[in-house]
TrEMBL record:
Pfam family, one: ABC1
PANTHER family: AARF DOMAIN-CONTAINING PROTEIN KINASE 1 (PTHR43173:SF19), ABC1 FAMILY PROTEIN (PTHR43173)
Keywords per UniProt: Signal
Boundaries of every ABC1 atypical kinase-like domain copy: 129-387
Signal peptide limits: 1-26
Protein name: ABC1 protein At2g40090
Family classification: Belongs to the protein kinase superfamily. ADCK protein kinase family.
């Protein structure tokens, strides 16, 4: 019976792939406005789709066959499931590298969805996808530069290094000098992205939907919807350049107190197009490179505070959020034109790179999200439930939503202890979170289906920032949560003041502000006492 069911699933998938590849290819090439491009697609896409279908079939078959007959909750089933997760993650990794392009992007995205997908997938993708991206040949780079700017790199620039200093899923970066002698970074889109991006989206969509049809519990259609919306924006480098300028303008207008501490490279508009972006070259340490940061005379804990405040301001006050803040996109350097502090340390400046993926939060979503984080920081169960429902989680999955945002179980989320959201990073903590992810897999899938895509990107952003903070601090810290609590509360108060003016509304907002300062001061005192007790226990 099991074999017949599995054979039926494999047959469905194979027939669907064959149907998509076949029928009408030659006619489409003949009648196309661009026959050479259409032919290129028809010779490129079928092998990729066949690889997709074979990988999806192998993964589905492995899960069904390996877990068949093993009792739910048994140690044997859990051990087997771990092995299948690992084998399947490696198959998926191999598929991403074979197909390249948006598949690398998809793998990177999965690697950042900690505790939302099995840990074996997260670790496999995280260990490989950020550091092993494809590299276009210099001939391909020349082809793009000539097509976009009208001549070869050696003519357009005074100097152009043919070897890229970095390569990502969609593009690679070369160091050059313009004819004014300025050192610049030239971001060149991989040529195959233009040829296959739309078709790759379609094939990935097909595979995910087919798998959901065969195995209804496998529902990652939300990820495809997000990719379909985000990818065209990420492939448009003019959009990326505009995002970088809007980001800095927001800090200058809405967050002037930290505007000098946040920077994005200057764009050379005369040397930029939708597929090629020329920017000021930036020197700095990657945000997780603690040794280099210290060597620059900067304290890592100050960098952690700056990163937390920068993104809290974006999320809760600007409503325009950089949604790809992994370590390679965040550089740190000493704040220009500043001296040393009393302790002899330099102030940090955060440099934001790769502005292709931003999300805008409308006023209502932004304030509800700020209210939710305020409630999470201050352990307000009723407000957590209310604002989770407003953001789409419903009244049945609010506890799960709170757990995903904070990486804490519900009993810790509503614990009044000052450090209730701090993850200790112990093995038991990690095991508990992974157990919850496995136990509530179907509920997590349902929650992700319900939430607006903009909130899904906030989840990804949170995961990136959590990883950065852990690398910088290397010990559990409450300060990040205190910053989030302060900025989210300020955003809620400012929203109240911006609404219809009245003396009572003004008075209510100012009382809220006084209460906020009192609560934050109480938390700070409790934090000092807690740290003092821990220090004494360590000495003893």
């Amino acid at each position: 019976m099991a074999t017949r069911s599995l054979w039926g699933a494999r047959t469905k998938l194979a027939l669907s792939a064959t149907a998509l590849i076949g029928g009408g290819a030659a006619a489409n090439v003949a009648t196309s406005d661009d026959p050479s491009m259409t032919l290129k697609l028809y010779t490129t896409v079928p092998p990729r789709l066949i690889r997709d279908a074979m990988t999806a079939t192998a993964i589905a078959f492995d899960y069904e066959y390996s877990l068949w007959g093993l009792p739910e909750g048994s140690s044997e089933r859990e051990k087997t499931k771990h092995e299948v997760h690992l084998r399947s993650a490696r198959k998926l990794q191999e598929l991403c590298f074979s197909n390249g392009g948006i598949y690398i992007k998809l793998g990177q995205h999965l690697g950042q969805l900690e505790y939302l997908v099995p840990q074996e997938y997260v670790q496999t993708m995280r260990d490989s996808m950020l550091n092993k991206c494809p590299v276009s040949s210099y001939e391909q780079v020349c082809e793009v530069v000539k097509k976009e700017l009208g001549d070869t790199p050696d003519t357009i620039f005074a100097e152009f290094d043919p070897v890229p200093i970095a390569s990502a899923s969609l593009a690679q970066v070369h160091v050059a000098r313009n004819h004014d002698g300025k050192k610049v970074a030239v971001k060149v889109q991989h040529t195959h992205m233009t040829d296959t991006a739309a078709a790759d989206c379609a094939t990935v969509d097909f595979i995910v939907n087919t798998l959901h049809w065969i195995f209804p519990s496998f529902d990652y259609r939300w990820l495809i919807d997000e990719m379909r919306e985000s990818l065209p924006k990420e492939l448009d480098f003019i959009n990326e350049a505009q995002n970088s300028e809007t980001c800095l303008e927001n800090f200058q207008k809405l967050s002037p107190h930290i505007a000098a501490y946040v920077y994005a490279p200057k764009v050379y508009w005369n040397l930029s197009t939708s597929k090629l972006l020329t920017m000021e070259f930036m020197d700095g340490a990657e945000v997780n490179d603690v040794k280099t940061i210290k060597r620059l005379g900067i304290r890592p804990d100050e960098v952690a505070r700056l990163v937390s405040e920068t993104f809290a301001e974006m999320m809760f006050k600007h409503g325009f959020v950089h949604c790809d803040p992994h370590a390679a996109n965040l550089l740190v350097r000493p704040l220009p034109y500043s001296g040393k502090s009393i302790l002899g340390k330099k102030k940090p400046q955060l440099i934001l790179l790769d502005h292709g993926l931003y999300k805008e939060l409308d006023f209502e979503t932004r304030i509800n999200y700020a209210k939710l984080w305020k409630a999470l920081i201050f352990a307000d169960a009723n407000a957590i439930k209310e604002n989770s429902a407003k953001l789409g989680a419903g009244e049945d999955l609010y506890a799960l939503f709170a757990g995903i945002l904070t990486m804490r179980p519900w009993n810790r989320v509503i614990d009044p202890a000052v450090d209730h959201l701090v993850i200790q990073g112990s093995e038991s903590d990690r095991s508990e979170l992974q157990m919850y992810a496995s136990q509530y897999f179907s509920q997590i899938s349902e929650l992700l289906r319900r939430l607006p895509r903009v909130i899904l990107l906030m989840l990804k952003t949170n995961d990136c920032l959590r990883s950065v903070s852990n690398a910088l601090l290397q010990v559990p810290s409450l300060e990040t949560f205190m910053i989030i609590g302060r900025v989210s509360s300020e955003a809620v108060i400012e929203a109240k003041l911006s609404q219809k003016k009245s003396f009572l509304r003004w008075l209510s907002a100012w009382l809220d502000k006084i209460l906020l300062e009192a609560r934050l001061f109480t938390m700070q005192v409790a934090l000092w006492l807690l740290q003092g007790r821990k220090s004494l226990s360590w000495r003893n």
